[in-house]
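Homework help board

Subject: predicted structure for assignment chain

Our instructor gave us this sequence and asked us to write out the predicted structure in token form, then describe one feature. I got the tokens but I'm not sure how to describe them. Can anyone check?
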Amino acid sequence: MNRFRTALSVTALALAVGLGGCSAAGTGTGTSITGTSANSSTTSGTAQAAVSLDTLAADTHYDADDLTWDAAAEVAVTLADGASSVASGTSSDAVKVDGDTVTISAAGTYRLSGSLSDGQVVVAAGEEDVVRIILDGAEVSSSTGSPFVVQNANEAIVYLEDGTSNSLSDASAYSDTAEDAPNAALYSQADLTIAGTGSLTVDGNFNDGISSKDGLVLAAGNVTVDATDDGIVGKDYAVLLDGAYQVTAGDDGFKSDNEEDEGRGWVLINGGTLNVSAGDDGIKAFNTLTIAAGVATVEESEEGLEAQHIVMSGGTANVTANDDGVNASGGASTSASGGGMGGGGEMAVGDYTVEVTGGSLTINSQGDGLDSNGNASISGGTVVVNGPTNSGNGALDVNGELTVTGGTVAAAGSVGMVVTPGTSSTQSGVQVTLGSAVPAGTVVQIADSAGNVVSAFVTTKTTASLVFSSAAITEGEEYTVYTGGTATVSAGVGEGSLDGADQVGTVTAGEYTASEGPGGGGGFGGRR
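My token output:
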């Protein structure tokens, strides 16, 4: 196992096509990666853009050997208050029991069952050792610190045995609060992998729930995390391949936070399901955040997805935010540039990007919907933004250029800060500013000159404007906008019927007008 592999590049994350995650199969007699199991979803007609296992193996600590072992060599450990023991016939000098602290000091596979009401499991192995811990109905709590600590190893693998329930719960106050001391219920100084099809409940009562100070790969598992501070953290990278992860966090939900090492601090969702309720950012990366497969749902957050570079190449993301839904920002330097699309004041354009090439991204935000402090591009997939109702924010907010060359975009919100596709766009669109705001649940329909509905949109909140772009819109053509009628939609966009609808005006594709802030907007985007 190589702990110093390079990070996945933005291009590799966005374009590598292969297995949509991996699933651990087996019954404790040794396991192996089997086929594809991504629980993933993509927009109809959009190719799945999952990152291949070969690419992941080259750029993380994770590979097929992690989930393969000789069951006959397992060391069975029974956890019990004041009476933890190694099973007869599987004795190992690598397991030491000292009161209610169980320490593992060498490479190998260790099967833990039973419970410690106030104890700790410690991995203190060699720098090159791979330590595999099978949790087979194990419950560990601590009243003084972390119940599960990997002090040293090359890689630690926590495997959740099929059909079992396991739990880790730490103290609300730690006796050791030094800078480098453990601060999570499941804490690792080494590369950490979580796999298996069993379940794990993690209560981070002091600070974080799960934290790796190296790389983190979530290969499988049914895991619930409730943390006072951050939910799940991988310092160099945090990767979700498969499984179901439910995170409730007082601060950030799922993140990678290495700000020092070039190319580190990235997040990849490549399969499985992730549900996050966070007090601050839902899913966050210092460098690049990529969703390539699987389903990611941010149920509650201040800012939903945040990173310097955000890539959506496949899968499904549903984001709810009190502030910005998708926010490309961070610690990169900025450079002078012009304003947003279609006019507006001068804005600084930094090295920040949002790139959507596939999948389905749905945003519900009170602040800006899709926000980039640099540029943004959409070339595939579906982007639906249910943006702000106040005019101080916009459904789309791009300091540089918003380039649309494919896919479907429906961005609804207020009229004060409307951004529209820039001059580099090759796919046309329309800008609709309604005479008066319409309430949630209103059907807004766009019909061509022959009266055919090219798209219908259903609002989720009070809406005064809509920017829409798809392959069905032809540059220079006139379209009629209606409210009312009926619609069949997915994520707010779909097909409609004009029966009972009211005509509110006409727009011309590709004609965007300026607004008060960066981007286009203001007025009805064509003749009335």
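Reply (TA_rk): Your tokens look well-formed. For the description, you could write something like this. The mean pLDDT is 87. That's the kind of observation they're looking for.
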